[in-house]
Amino acid sequence: MSVYTTVSRESLEHWLQGYALGQLIDLQGIAAGITNTNYFVTTTHGRYVLTLFETLQLKELPYYLTLMSHLAKHGVACPAPVADHSDRFASLLAGKPACLVSCLSGADVDAPSAEQCRAVGETLAQMHKAGATFPLLMKNPRGPSWWSRTAQQLYPRLPEDQAALLREEIQYQDAHRFDHLPSGVIHADLFRDNVLLDGNHISGFIDFYYACNDILLYDVAIAVNDWARLDDGEMDDNRARIFLEGYQSERPLEMAERSCWPVMLRAAALRFWVSRLQDLYQPASGELTYTKDPMVFQRLLQAHRQRQDFWLG
Amino acid sequence: MSVYTTVSRESLEHWLQGYALGQLIDLQGIAAGITNTNYFVTTTHGRYVLTLFETLQLKELPYYLTLMSHLAKHGVACPAPVADHSDRFASLLAGKPACLVSCLSGADVDAPSAEQCRAVGETLAQMHKAGATFPLLMKNPRGPSWWSRTAQQLYPRLPEDQAALLREEIQYQDAHRFDHLPSGVIHADLFRDNVLLDGNHISGFIDFYYACNDILLYDVAIAVNDWARLDDGEMDDNRARIFLEGYQSERPLEMAERSCWPVMLRAAALRFWVSRLQDLYQPASGELTYTKDPMVFQRLLQAHRQRQDFWLG
Question: Which family does it belong to (chains A, B) (predicted)?
Fold first, then answer.
């Protein structure tokens, strides 16, 4: 259940006077999402999603909300934040930073088809192209220096073989540089639960709160690692190949990207292996953490290390 | 028929590569609109309206398109222009300035109900409030100096009684100043054919190509003069009153606006009387003009001059 902060009709009605959205009709808590409180808000003008941010601060929001607005303006399917009469996308409600975004149709898909993977790949490439004119910058808080630092704290707590694998992979990644690859705005968390689909049609990418500026290929690797992964942790070659076909139909990979692709798939697996290990061994006190199994990404990393075919055709 | 410029599938497919909208599926000319060429464009991502501007130049478009984008971002129902990969809302297609906007549902209404008038009034007020943070400026090209200048050319061609009425009204308006009233972005042409409705729900205001910065109350007068006018040119008191109720539910008129309201209704009637006389007596050569009856606005002006009740309650 994701309603951590309760919003009263009265306080919402008052807050909505700062918007051009008409009168409040209905307010319904949404039982999904892990970190934030979400409501469906229906007004005389339409239906919106209200998010109250439980951990992000008001001053941290402009990058994410301006990015979503920029992408929506370019026709990339994602929720469009609504600005208030002071031209702000967010302000305090019930003591929390809060925003309204347009309500999308569709639902997330647990077992995507190859065609759905193609559509996600294509839209990811369009997002990368549309992000090229986005003026704000955000460093990736979960890049190589973060995983090295976090690994130092994890080594003493991990079984010997896991610690050895983690140490070896970090050394391997340290020996590779990606600075020469195309960079830009990345979603950085484009897992299956962050895409709303309507059949093969992308209703929208959602949950941009890990978005940042980094290597575009890294974003592709994060997404392929999830969209083409089977329940047993193995990769579905067909879905992976078709995801990449969809991506390359909009943005063909450069030669330098093709050569870095095998390393990048491992980097993307490493990043989520480390964060899940961190959630397991060092849960942030008071943070609403829903621990997911780190083993999935350990196995994926091991499989990538053995892999010969990387689906690039 | 409004397709003055033909767009081929091939040239549109090429042009669409500059957008994040997927592949072209269908292209259909729209048989509505007087000044511009419009097409429905369906891509793998959705449905859009393509406009090719037959008279406006590329450099004149940013005010209008950025305004529509600003209003859409604030939740005011109107078509949202789509930006291309160079972050432009318009560029040349088939030799004409062209843009894509989101496709709205709904249709224009010939005989609006009182509740529809209320909804239009309310949305107009919301548009005025949302326009307060719009940074661009455009002077009204059809203000008092335009109608005085145009009237000078019309006097010799008009019947005696019409020339006398026109001269008298312009003198009357010259004796009144509105500089102390709230100003901002106005639509300036919010007639029944420029609002798409879905029952009592406003799908969108359209055709912002007369929008400019001027007195807000003038915009209200232009709209009331059309939305509450009956076929015989008389005003429907109920529709006028309810339009104003809807407007004031979002932006109550100030005392100074209430006192200027009767003069403003006459100014708004004068403006369209003059432009229709101009279309009739001096049709711009080569311009695609669809002449409308000036007499409607002459009679409306005469009625306003006799009126005692101005529906403000």
Answer: Belongs to the pseudomonas-type ThrB family.
